[in-house]
Amino acid sequence: MEQLKGTGVALVTPFKKDESIDWNALEKVIDHVISGGVDYVVSLGTTGETPTLSSEEKLDIMKFTFEKVNKRVPVVVGIGDYNTRDVVKRLETCPLDEAAAVLSVAPYYSKPSQEGLFQHYKAVAAASPKPIILYNVPGRTGRNMTAQTTLRLAKEVANIVAMKEASGDMVQCMQIIKDKPKDFLVVSGDDALAFPQIATGMDGLISVAANYFAKDVADMVRAALASNNAKARELHYKLQDSFDLMFEENNPAGVKAFLAEGGIIENVFRLPVVPVSAGLQSRIATFNKNYK
Predict the structure, then answer these.
(1) Per the annotation, does 47 bind a ligand?
(2) Which residues pair with 9 in a beta bridge?
(3) 58-94 burial by CB neighbour count: b if 16+ within 10 A, else e?
(4) What pLDDT is recorded for position 216?
(5) What's the pLDDT band for 185 if we cut at 50, 70, 90?
(6) Catalytic: 121?
(7) Nearest in space to 243 (alpha carbons), one of 196, 185, 199
(8) Nearest alpha carbon to residue 215 among 10, 2, 32
(9) What CA–CA distance (Å, rounded) separates 98 from 115?
(10) Which one, out of 7, 29, 207, 240, has a CA that is 20 to 30 A from the CA of 41?
(11) Residue 192 carries which DSSP code?
């Protein structure tokens, strides 16, 4: 799991004006983040607008990402749902030979108990041919996975090897870091908190912002992991306003606005996601113009 330390990037899914997948733009994003120095990519995460993709499109994106990455960096694949049986079936049938691991979001909408979360992940881990990265993002799922549940999974389920923590609760994060097994990785899911979280012992970041600011985000994480806090702090504050703009209205609307300003993708979405407001787009354009 050493390959999952550092900076991962949750790839966007670019669309054309007719809302079909823009394969040329996706290749440009992949090349952009790898040339920027990220350590691995995450295909089919929330930032990829997976709820609006068909099963066939998800499979096509996975295969395309493996092909275009071409082993330059590891690829993590997002496979998660509120239906445990469906997740198990997809894990048993998806072509995951080239995947380094599977990122599996906690079940959303149904708001299971902590025991329900444990049993869900236990079943998912048993079905997966690849190591499982837990993903706690209560702002999207409606249910926080506690430090106690995370630690129970880390200690009792062998195929669960890491956690993407996006609760924003620093105390909870530190509880996990303090008591986790030695070889269990904890990575940040919050761009704006990654620097202080790495300082407390996290192993890296799965980033949204690195879709566009790949080099600076990767350099920030690399410096923080090396305990070069002066350099990491400098980059953190250089990027801070971009984080605020990027998440002000919606993810991935914010990061796609930046990518569109940079000429990498078109600013197109599938409903219910829509572009950021004209006012925010203007502020993003101004920030992007002045960013050095």
Answers:
(1) yes
(2) 41, 207
(3) bbebbebbbebbeeebbbbbbbbbbebeebbebbeeb
(4) 98
(5) very high
(6) no
(7) 196
(8) 32
(9) 32
(10) 240
(11) G
Are residues 218 and 41 in contact, defined by beta-carbon separation less than 8 angstroms?
A: no
User: Annotation-wise, does 46 bind a ligand?
Assistant: no
Concerning whether 182 is annotated as a catalytic residue, the answer is no
Q: At a CB cut-off of 8 Å and minimum separation 6, what does 211 contact?
A: 9, 10, 11, 12, 29, 32, 33, 47, 255, 258, 259
Average pLDDT over residues 191-201: 98
Give tens-digit pLDDT for 7-27: 999 999 999 999 999 999 999
Rounded-to-integer distance, Cα 25 and Cα 4, Å = 25
Max Cα distance, the chain (Å): 50
pLDDT > 90? residue 242: yes
For residue 56, the model assigns a pLDDT of: 97
Q: Which residue has the tokens 């997966």?
A: 128
Distance CA 189, CA 136 (A): 9
Element (H, E) at 42: strand 40-43
Q: What are 78's strand-pairing partners?
A: 103
Quickly tell me which residue has 């295909």 as its tokens.
Answer: 43
Question: The whole model's pTM is what?
Answer: 0.97
Provide the 8-state DSSP code for 182.
T
Rounded distance between C-alpha atoms, residue 262 and residue 61, angstroms: 23
How far is the C-alpha of 209 from the C-alpha of 1, rounded, in Å? 23
Catalytic residue among 40, 108, 135, 212: 135
Listed in sequence order, the residues at least 6 apart from 36 whose beta carbon sits closer than 8 Å to its beta carbon are 210, 213, 214, 215, 217, 218
Q: Extract the tokens encoding 96.
A: 């995951």
Given 58, 68, 164, 180, the catalytic residue: 164
CB proximity list for 18: less than 8 A, separation 6 or greater? none
In this prediction, what percent of the chain has a pLDDT beyond 90?
99
